[in-house]
Write a structure and sequence with these properties.
About 40% of the residues lie in helices and about 20% in strands. The chain is an alpha/beta fold. The protein has a five-stranded mixed sheet, with helices on one face. A five-stranded mixed sheet has the order 9-8-10-7-11, with helices on both faces. The chain has a two-stranded antiparallel sheet with strand order 1-2. α1 packs across α3. The longest helix is centred in the N-terminal third of the chain and has 29 residues. The chain starts with 12 loop residues before the first helix and ends in an 8-residue tail after the last helix.
Length: about 300
């Protein structure tokens, strides 16, 4: 067994622990019971400490002990030092217990739905350090670039190395600003859409799905293709054309009167146009991953009218 050289200036830790307990309890016997050592062992540690300091720390009586003036001063400093060590230890353990989680998603989902609800997740899971990665790029979740991806579209495909959970099947319907509806041309039936610019993202698969349900041929439509759905929504609010409304992301604008849902009798729901949670097929879900996916699934299932807090 290897022995560590003792410090020339610091007393042995067992002696300090015995002194702190005996000084706090004013009893060698009770200190021994707390430290799970004998009373004589406590007395030995105290004597060793007094010898190293060159000063008496206790006055021994037949029925107990009291601290000397030097002992009382020293006890205050030792207790403060132990408190500092205990606090630092809690901090280090707390940091070690924290769990990191990186989630990738399209910016429109992050801005319009997730961001207002993040305070609820932080309150429910204060031990998880959540990093959000809003991006239009297709992040390599299977390769470990993110722990979880929130994808919009048809979900995981064979051979892509991903496992998926359906988060929300969106209800699709065109939307326009009240100003555009006032200006015209009128929008009474789906065919009237061909008289207006249609606001597309780079992959307008939701328009394709809705057009099939509405039995509308969009090949003759005027289109304005925009990079991100956030820009599509802003252009619609500004009256620049008609956007395809994704129910999960537009409810706030509908309630505020910034957008109006068109042809509400034709609402499309399909897992091919949905939000999916995806993660690498080759990995086991961590507790942090499971906690986030369970939380967001419950949030999405909550009534849309429930305001974030």
């Amino acid at each position: 067994m290897a022995f560590m050289r003792l410090s020339a200036t610091l007393p042995p830790l067992p002696a300090l622990r015995a002194f702190e307990a005996a000084g706090r309890l004013l009893s060698f016997r009770q200190a021994g019971e707390e430290l799970l050592i004998t009373q004589s062992a406590v007395s030995h540690h105290i004597r060793q400490l007094e010898d190293s300091l060159g000063v008496a720390l206790f006055i021994r009586h037949a029925r107990g002990v009291t601290l000397t003036t030097a002992g009382a001063r020293y006890l205050a400093v030792v207790c403060q030092a132990f408190d500092l060590i205990a606090g630092a230890t809690r901090d280090v353990r707390g940091q070690a217990a924290r769990r990191a989680l990186k989630v990738s998603m399209v910016p429109s989902f992050a801005a319009n739905w997730l961001a207002p609800r993040l305070a609820r997740f932080a309150a429910a899971h204060p031990d998880i350090d959540l990093t959000l990665d809003p991006t239009l790029d297709r992040v390599d979740v299977a390769g470990g670039a993110a722990d979880i991806g929130i994808r919009y579209g048809p979900g995981p495909q064979p051979g892509d190395g991903l496992v998926g959970r359906l988060l929300h099947m969106d209800r699709l319907a065109p939307v326009a600003s009240p100003d555009l509806l006032r200006r015209g041309p009128p929008l009474r039936v789906p065919a009237d859409l061909l008289a207006h610019p249609l606001l597309f993202t780079l992959r307008p698969f939701e328009w394709d799905a809705w057009a099939v349900a509405a039995q509308l041929d969009l090949r003759g439509a005027r289109t304005l293709q925009l990079t991100d759905y956030n820009i599509v929504l802003q252009a619609a609010v500004d009256g620049q054309g008609v956007a395809m409304g994704r129910a999960l992301l537009i409810e706030d604008r509908i309630r505020a009167g910034l957008l109006v849902r068109l042809f509400p009798g034709i609402l499309v729901e399909t897992p091919r146009v949905a939000h999916w949670l995806v993660w690498a097929e080759a990995r086991t879900c961590t507790p942090a991953m499971t906690a986030f996916m369970d939380w967001i699934t419950a949030e999405v299932a909550a009534p849309l009218v429930a305001p974030p807090v």
